[in-house]
Design goal:
508 residues; Cytochrome p450; 4-stranded mixed sheet; 3-stranded antiparallel sheet; globular; transmembrane; heme; metal-binding; Cytochrome P450
């Protein structure tokens, strides 16, 4: 053995290079012979090195829908060196998210996780295992339970009142045109800040800086990162500025979140928890760190990761959904009048609407449901990854294959939905369909083990402000223009241009 190695070392460099090339060709042939025996899902033609990356387009969920119509609802694409199964059917989604959920419950490791250290502890991105199971259990039982969500009812009510007052002030100052996009985003951010961090950060320079940090972090999650698909080219990020941006964002997050945690540690020594007399999320997590009740290693970095999870799950998605709902209502005045009629009949002259009132507004809830279908906030579910080789509808899926469920394409499938591109809230009347992960033709929050745990938090955060906006004001588009429905680029499908509307106070 040692003699053979000595002989190899003594070879001329050219000969050694030739042998290396032969060895690589042998491995390539061996790999092809093995994969040739597999019955892989159909694939579109791909380019060398980049594979099918050039076919993604600026709105991947739409591009992937078009490709699926040509190649089938189970389609194998190659994004650089990453084989990725695209699922665009109810049957495929059910197989991935229910029947074989355990095998497809892993997550591929993303390049940004290597730069933002505590990103490894995110509930959304951490691999399937004991840490993920224990942390998810904590989030579901301690942070996002119905009891915990109900304990923050007054926060949602107060922030809704603040939003309504901002609109009234704008009208009284002679500016009836309201930027609903900004207004709604500020509402969801303020609610999330108070529930998670114990206070909101306002709209001064400090508050604007904080929101900019959060937005930047969300950008990295959805941004194209060459290192995720072609690891050997990850060095390019040193020259295109992406790594420098990530490093700067990590430093800013570290400084901000570290300050929030330290502030809570000091306050816990002298105060009762939260301005509403209940613990915020940071207090709960600090208590778990102290008593070790979570059952896995848990420290400050874990707390920072879960804080960010709350903002990722609770802010952009809820804001995008409410903005799209108001957009569609302005595009369909007859539906707007109909839902306002219901809201005002339920309220019956009250000065403000409560969550108990909103719970009785079934047509308004159907408006939100239809918005989640037509404008699925996360059109492509966060990628799954197979843990072992699998068989899927007759096709072979090798271990470590990424899997993306195109929830948006399923929600627009004409084989399932009548006139799928039309906004028709009444399609949910007398329908048992819900967004809790039991109906695979409707997956705005995902399904299975990796379903978004914040559904109970999201519902009242959307319903209460929507009901109040519809109750207290009549809404029309400036100059009678129909709002556009152009989507922006990102992990969340938000409205690209701000939604502006004229608010006219409704006399109760």
């Amino acid at each position: 053995m040692f003699q053979l190695w000595s002989e190899v070392q003594s070879l001329h460099p050219i000969s050694l290079s030739f042998l290396s090339i032969l060895f690589v060709l042998f491995l390539f042939k061996l790999t092809r012979s093995r994969t040739g025996k597999l019955n892989l899902p159909p694939s579109p033609w791909k380019l060398p090195v980049i594979g099918n990356l050039h076919q993604l387009g600026t709105l991947p969920h739409r591009s992937l829908q078009s490709l699926a119509r040509k190649h089938g609802p189970l389609m194998l694409l190659h994004f650089g060196q990453s084989p990725t199964l695209i699922v665009s059917s109810v049957e495929g989604a059910k197989e991935i998210l229910k029947t074989q959920d355990l095998n497809f419950s892993d997550r591929p490791r993303m390049n940004f996780q290597d730069r933002l250290v505590y990103a490894n502890y995110h509930l959304a991105f951490s691999p399937y295992g004991e840490y993920w199971r224990q942390v998810r259990k904590v989030c579901v039982l301690q942070l996002l339970s119905q009891h915990r969500v109900n304990s923050f009812k007054s926060v949602r009510q107060e922030e809704t009142d603040c939003m309504l007052n901002d609109i009234r002030k704008s009208i009284s100052s002679g500016s009836p045109i309201v930027n609903l996009s900004d207004l709604i985003f500020s509402f969801t951010n303020d609610v999330t800040c108070r529930v998670t961090l114990g206070r909101k950060f306002g709209r001064d320079e400090g508050g604007k800086k904080f929101f900019k940090i959060i937005k930047e972090f969300m950008y990295f999650i959805g941004a194209f990162n060459i290192g995720d698909f072609i690891p050997s080219l990850a060095w390019i990020n040193n020259f295109n500025g992406l790594n420098a941006r990530m490093d700067k964002n990590f430093e800013e997050l570290e400084s901000f979140l570290g300050g929030v945690i330290e502030e809570h540690i000091q306050d816990r020594k002298t105060r009762k928890f939260g301005s509403e007399g209940v613990e915020d999320f940071v207090d709960v997590l600090l208590g778990m760190e102290k008593d070790g009740s979570i059952g896995v290693p848990f420290a400050k970095d874990n707390i920072k990761a879960l804080i960010m999870d709350m903002f990722l799950a609770a802010t952009d998605t809820a804001a995008a959904t409410m903005t799209w709902a108001m957009t569609e209502l302005l595009r369909h005045p007859e539906i707007l009048k109909e839902v306002q009629r219901e809201v005002r009949e339920v309220a019956k002259g009250k000065t403000h609407i409560t969550e108990d009132d909103a719970a009785q507004m079934h047509y308004m809830k159907n408006v939100i449901k239809e918005t989640l279908r037509v404008h699925t906030p996360g059109p492509l579910l966060i990628p799954h990854q197979s843990r072992e080789d699998a068989k899927l509808q007759g096709y072979d899926v090798p271990a470590k294959t990424r899997v993306i469920v195109n929830a948006w394409a399923i929600a627009r499938d004409p084989a399932i939905w009548e006139e799928p591109d039309e906004f028709r809230p009444k399609r949910f009347e007398n329908s048992s369909l819900d967004f809790k992960g039991n109906d695979f033709e409707y997956l705005p929050f995902g399904a299975g083990r990796r379903i978004c745990p914040g559904i109970a938090f999201a519902s009242p955060t959307m319903e209460l402000p929507m009901a109040n906006l519809l109750y207290h004001f009549d809404w029309t588009s400036p100059n009678g223009e129909v709002p556009d429905v152009e989507e922006g680029l990102g992990i969340v499908a938000y409205k690209k241009s701000p939604l502006r509307a004229i608010a006219t106070p409704y006399r109760v």
